[in-house]
Amino acid sequence: MSSNNVYLIASSMVRVGRYFSKSYKDLVVDVVNELFSSVGSIDIDYLIISNVFSDSILEQLDISTILTQELGLTPKPALRVETGESSGLTAITQGYSLIKSGIADTVLVVGVEKCSEFPTPTMNKHFIKFSDYEVESIYGLSVVNEAALLMKIYMRRYGYSREDLSSWSVKMHSNALKNPYAQLRFLISKEQVVRSQVISDPIRLLDMYPVGDGASAVLLSSKEGIVNNEALEVVDIAQATSQPLNLREDLLSLPATKIVFNKLLSRSKLDLNDLVIEVHDSFSILGYLILEELGLVEKGKAPSIIDDLDNVNLSGGLKARGHPIGATGVYQVAEVFKIMTTGLGDIKRDSCWGLIHSMSAVDNNSVGILVRRCSC
Amino acid sequence: MRLSIPRFWRKRFDYYSVRISECLDCGRKFYPRRSICPYCRSRNVKVVTSRGVGEVLTYTVSYYRLEGYEEVIPKVIALIKLVEGPVLIGELVDVDISEVREGLKVEAVLRRLKSEDPAGLIYYGIKFRPIVG
Which residue in chain A has the smallest CA separation from B127? Predict the structure, then answer.
């Protein structure tokens, strides 16, 4: 008997990092074993894998079947989800849809990515694939270049200096210090940000996500007996796409993200300051733009409120937790689950609501989910 | 990945010139060329070859290392507004970084994009250079 309400039951992850001695299979086996040891033996109906570079890097297609075999989960049905950098959160929404539609009661969602198998210039060749190959990537243009152009426009429009826009990275590193699963667990200063290596001026190394491997798992279910008081309900999901940057009316707008936030927030009068929020800050400038699109702060003011924020990217965000591409969205959900239940390390919040946002490139394909504590 | 001759050949007019589209219903012009208008979804769209002339709206100097694109580092990547109206992102060449500025007038020029190996195919495409004089 199933209520068709969808609940987050458990989550697990490995610390984001460079696992030279472990394959993607090893990482997935680790997180799935940890997840099942926390909930006991549960029969799943579906396995969803979020992974972006399986064919580019791992020489592997149909990776969900290979992992089903490795995990001993055959004959369970399995599929892989890919929407660029937002794949992980898309995978969660697909699990939600399978349960809502009645096709499955319990779905295991696993995100995994191996980004340290090759040197960075080789990985960068794959990272540029998030843009249209025939129009942008063939010219060697990358998302970091787009983010840099936006950062310059933002600085010009609102009169910020380069140093003013370093507050995001400083805050994310400070948050990551408390997250046992974060890749970059050290403090940085604004001076270090503005003196770090130039990647695409004005973006410097400490304005962007680090390259790392990761795996994370989340268990979704609607089944009585599996759902308990610790569970979080997935109340709503939203997803939208937008045209590339050069076709947008306002270059500093994130049209798909705006649609996602409007849908998730329209149903309830939520106090944004009382939510646990995770957003896709692959570059610090995008962190600012997302908070402004969310309505947490008016346009052009985000850099001035960052120091006082205590409910956004408690994980350290993509900037400091890390960004194992296809796994990232699953990490965000796994972390929010822990923050709102047993604690992510020492990070714990009593908030009733959580909001998770992910996107690919600069808002090409954006996803959001809204979760609520069952006892609220 | 090895280069594909048919994949490049079929789009040779897009890679060897700047082609934009004009929607005959809503009147908008846009880059890249498409057969469906991204603004109103009309299919009543015609292809126009741009003069390839425009100005730099803003730019970034990029040190991002990409396998296959390492011959020129840093690259100057610019947001360019064509005289016909559409905006695109392109690479600037034949210019000192210190001379790049917003408002710089530029024109399209055919340049080498990349090659698969020293003895292999070479891809050419459009980059932009300052208009002299």
Answer: A139
Of A128, A134, A153, the CB nearest to B66: A128
Q: Is A313 exposed, middle or buried (0-12, 13-18, 19+ CB in 10 A)?
A: buried
Q: CA-CA distance, A126 to A133, in Å (whole number)?
A: 11
Please indicate whether, in this complex, the C-beta atoms of A141 and B79 are within 8 angstroms of each other.
no
CB-based contact, B16 to chain A, within 8 Å: no
Angle in degrees, 0-180, between the axes of helices A24-39 and A63-70, rounded to the nearest 10: 60
Instruction: Please report, for chain A, the start and end positions of each structural domain, with discontinuous segments joined by +.
Output: 2-119+211-223
Nearest by Cα to A227 from A336, A342, A11, A374:
A374
Q: Is A120 on the interface with B (CB under 8 A)?
A: yes
Quickly name the fold that domain A2-119+211-223 has: Peroxisomal Thiolase; Chain A, domain 1 (3.40.47)
Cβ–Cβ gap B58/A120 under 8 Å = no
Structural domain spans, chain B: 5-130
Instruction: Name the residue among A121, A148, A149 with its Cβ closest to that of B65.
Output: A121
A38 and chain B: CB distance < 8 Å anywhere? no
Return the number of other C-beta atoms located less than 10 Å from residue B85's C-beta: 14
Half-sphere exposure of B80 (CA within 13 A, CB side): 30
Residue in B closest to A56 by C-alpha: B1
Cβ pair B60:A149 closer than 8 A: yes
- Interface confidence (ipTM) of the complex: 0.96
**Cis geometry, peptide bond prior to residue A324 (ω within 30 degrees of 0):** no
pLDDT in tens, chain A (376 residues): 356 899 999 999 999 999 999 999 999 999 999 999 999 989 999 999 999 999 999 999 999 999 999 999 999 999 999 999 999 999 999 999 999 999 999 999 999 999 999 999 899 999 999 999 999 999 999 999 999 999 999 999 999 999 999 999 999 999 999 999 999 999 999 999 999 999 999 999 999 999 999 999 999 999 988 888 889 999 999 999 999 999 999 999 999 999 999 999 997 789 999 999 999 999 999 999 999 999 999 999 999 999 999 999 999 999 999 999 999 999 999 999 999 999 999 999 999 999 999 999 999 999 999 999 988 8
Burial profile A86-103: b = 16 or more Cβ within 10 angstroms, e = fewer: bbbbbbbbbbbebbbeee
